[in-house]
UniProtKB/TrEMBL annotation:
It comes from the Eukaryota. This is Aminoglycoside phosphotransferase domain-containing protein.
Length: 349
């Protein structure tokens, strides 16, 4: 992909307006007399040091993947970036929009769409952390804003995650949310939530056997993919969560995300572990199809290995990746201890 095909935030607008905004940023179109168009992406609510660093990490990751420049010395008091404007539309709005396709990519679109996600995993770095650009223009891996230093090993990463992990819902909130559930079930959920970080800490040395890491955008979603009229991918936006992680933390794209069966309510699956709901059953099938497509893409490129498809095929590692993210990102209720139990052999839990 050429350097100019980078984060074109205004492309995500549904109409030809001069500005729009998302949850965290205002996006404004800047037009010049010579016909050049730029996009200004400005943080809403004022910039703290942490928020500004998140944008800088995003720019550094985009610069590594695509080639990029930003102008970050400014008197405005808020972090912003300037980008070339590329006309297009988000994939979520293509083919009639969500009301027509309900968030599903048409069969004839999937191979090329999925191939791009596979290519992102070819970005390999020797440490686990956030991409940073040095003053001399070279790149390195820096610290995570929430858990600290870049990590040499997956074991160190999981230990650090466990020591910093905070479930965003308190006990009273959880009890209110489960007020209609049997007391035994509520107690089990509470215990699972409380114990999960310590279980991860105890299991840290068992969770990964890989020595390399993958660069991934954590928001690889329809609404973050810019396409043209022929569904060719022009750009990917929302890179601020992109980082390098242990292979066991590589996840499916967000539109294929499902709650792991071990975390979910048991009545959602039959005795053979098959989803009862037809929609959920279809989602699991689509995940299998996605892995098969990833494997084909890997095999077709002699510069790639099969680490991504192998990680996606591993049910227990996918369960782990989902649980680690869901625990701190919104505080999803579930049987977290059952995820950890899949790695506990020989520990006597």
């Amino acid at each position: 992909m050429s350097p100019h095909r980078t984060g074109t935030e205004l492309s995500s607008t549904r109409k030809t307006r001069l500005f729009t905004n998302g949850l965290y940023h205002l996006v404004r179109l800047i037009s010049f007399e010579d016909g050049t168009r730029w996009v200004a992406r400005i943080q809403l609510g004022g910039s703290t040091e942490g928020k500004a660093k998140k944008m800088q990490h995003e720019v550094d990751m985009m610069s590594l993947v695509y080639g990029y420049e930003t102008y970050d010395s400014n008197p405005t008091g808020v972090a912003f970036m300037l980008m070339e404007f590329i006309p297009g539309n988000v994939a979520m709005d293509a083919d009639g929009g969500h009301e027509v396709h309900r968030g599903n990519i048409r069969l004839n679109r999937r191979e090329a769409f999925y191939r791009y996600g596979t290519q992102l995993s070819s970005v390999r770095l020797p440490k686990i952390g956030m991409v940073v650009q040095r003053e001399d223009g070279s790149y390195d891996v820096g610290s995570f804003p929430d858990i600290g230093r870049p990590f040499e090993t997956a074991t160190d990463f999981f230990k650090a995650w466990a020591s910093h992990a905070k479930f965003p819902k308190d006990t009273e909130t959880i009890q209110k949310m489960m007020s209609g559930a049997p007391e035994a079930l509520s107690s089990q959920i509470l215990a699972s939530v409380r114990n999960f970080p310590s279980q991860i800490a105890a299991l840290a040395g068992r969770l990964s056997s890989q020595t390399t890491t993958a660069g991934r955008s954590q928001d690889f979603l329809h609404s973050n993919i810019i396409i043209d009229h022929d569904y060719n991918i022009l750009a990917v936006i929302e890179w601020e969560g992109a980082c390098t992680l242990p292979w066991e933390m590589a996840q499916f794209p967000m539109f294929l995300s499902v709650t792991p069966a071990v975390m979910d309510a048991p009545w959602n699956y039959d005795k053979n572990g098959v989803p009862v709901d037809e929609g959920l059953k279809r989602k699991w099938q689509e995940r299998e199809e996605y892995v098969d497509m990833v494997a084909r893409c890997e095999a077709a490129d002699d510069k790639m290995d099969n680490k991504l498809s192998a990680s996606l095929r591993s049910r227990k590692h996918q369960d782990l990746a989902f649980a680690v993210r869901a625990y701190v990102d919104g505080g999803k209720l579930g049987f977290y201890s059952k995820v950890a139990a899949q790695f506990q052999e020989g520990l006597g839990w």
